[in-house]
Design goal:
By secondary structure, the protein is α+β, with helices and mostly antiparallel strands. The protein has a four-stranded antiparallel beta sheet, with helices on one face.
């Protein structure tokens, strides 16, 4: 190989190495941006999943899900899937529907703490699906978090 050919080859190799170093540096920097897989629980705490489910009570065409209907839904649909316990409270909600209109309605918030396993995931999805079907709802908002619990 001639002297100029070696220099060209070396320049290309250096250019390739610089590009690889930039990619490696970016990958290292962005790795710190990844979402954590779970909290670092302290002694006496157990990792768990917490689901907040927001159920609007306005019915399409008018009317609301009554307190009695909500209580029956909790008794028949929710409690059998989470007999270990749950929390529920009333709320005033607002959201934008698929038609673009702002909807303001009374809501119920349900908090479920569970192991985050496949069985629990299926149970949460069944609750959401049952509510949407039974009360003809467009959506049920779900907010899932990884938490640490202690008794």
């Amino acid at each position: 190989m001639s002297e100029p050919a070696i220099q060209i080859h070396l320049r290309r190799a250096l250019s390739t190495m610089r590009a690889l170093l930039v990619v490696l540096a970016l990958a290292t920097a962005l790795a710190g941006c990844a979402l954590p897989t779970g909290p670092g629980c302290r002694g006496g705490e157990q990792p768990a999943s917490s689901d907040l489910l927001y159920f609007g009570t306005a019915r399409p065409g008018g009317g609301e899900v009554s307190a009695q209907e909500w209580a029956q839904f909790l008794e028949r649909i929710v409690t059998p899937r989470f007999p270990q316990g749950l929390s529920v409270w009333p709320a005033a909600g607002q959201w934008r529907g698929n038609d673009g209109a702002i909807v303001r309605e009374a809501s119920q918030v349900l908090n479920l703490l569970h192991p985050g396993d496949a069985r629990s995931e299926q149970a949460v999805q069944e609750i959401v699906s049952a509510y949407k079907t039974q009360f003809r709802q467009e959506a049920v908002l779900r907010v899932r978090s990884r938490v640490c619990t202690a008794l």
